[in-house]
């Protein structure tokens, strides 16, 4: 994995705005209106080539495929990073809408998740969440959330053809653009296992089944020479889905089970090719019930990887940069703090981006910081704004580099 040896490198979390025609192709495929797979694959490949070229032009050093292989059938979409896995895991049956999901099966006395509709943030701001004009977004206006699957049989990985196509498209795009290193995202078992369960004895057994199944995708990405990014907002986000709120100690114990399952899935894979993304959920809401990073930072650092990506610029978490003046980052680790946010339409000024980078570089060392985004930009902000944010990210990194390497 590249590190910032001569200047602050730039990357992002993964999702980028999709072209309108690709969104329409995804919608038509999902509705059964189109079965021309050759046309779809051809357009997907050309779209990935375009988005890699555009990332390079914007100044992104470590790009990806925009997550274009994770289908979005609408412009506004908060769940493609997760729902893609429903088509790559055998043993599932599509069930109820995500906001009416049943609680998972927990062992007696254990912390257990409620449904997404029972989030404590939603309860505190029920009027705002119910008002389509409030700006608090959880689903496309006029649309519905994706259907959550239920596990009804042994979980298996069935996405071999899909991940092979994603890898081929990205590698071809990187070669054409003359880019040495790219990353590809994959869902971690802690997040993938937040589904209904009618087969396994409890949620921990389901969790480890997800870990074994998704391990095949992790290995495919790394063996192709790409950097693997593991998306696992569940490690932070689950806190808001437990009613009543547990103790921090109980929550960390609950979350460590998920980290241990992830490390089990990563066994034998080179940690220097792996990065981990933690966030508090990408929906546009108040987020007053987010758990502080201080309470879960050791849980995050227990993930067996080299780099950690996390939210660091939105209004609920920017102040947490100070934590890195206290937390000892292991010598072989690096951080990818978000220095531009998906949570606002305001495009951050490059000088502000630079200031944010300098804070982290002062805390952990310049070579151990890569500038990133809080979360995915695709499906969360308008495409014009998303690309402006990436350009500001690159400009801010250049300003910071001039100060750090002068």
| Fraction of residues in H or I helices | 25-40%
Helical segment count = 13
Report the CATH architecture. Answer: Alpha-Beta Barrel
SSE arrangement, N to C: EHHHEHHEHEHEHEHHEHEEHEH
What is the C-level CATH assignment? Alpha Beta
Beta-strand percentage? 5-15%
Main sheet, how many strands, which sense, barrel? 7 strands, parallel
Q: What is the domain tally?
A: 1
Globally, the shape reads: globular
Radius of gyration, in Å, reads 20 Å
What is the CATH topology?
Answer: TIM Barrel
Strand order of the largest sheet: 1-10-9-8-7-6-4
Description:
The structure is a single chain. The strands form two sheets. The chain has a seven-stranded parallel β-sheet. A three-stranded mixed β-sheet has the order 2-3-5, with helices on one face. The protein has 406 residues and is of the alpha/beta class. Helices cover 39% and strands 13% of the residues. It has helices at residues 20-30, 37-58, 80-83, 120-124, 126-130, 160-177, 189-192, 203-223, 234-237, 248-266, 293-301, 350-364, 383-404, and strands at 9-10, 89-97, 147-157, 183-187, 196-197, 227-231, 274-278, 307-310, 334-340, 370-373. It is globular. The chain has one domain: TIM Barrel. It contains 13 helices and ten strands.
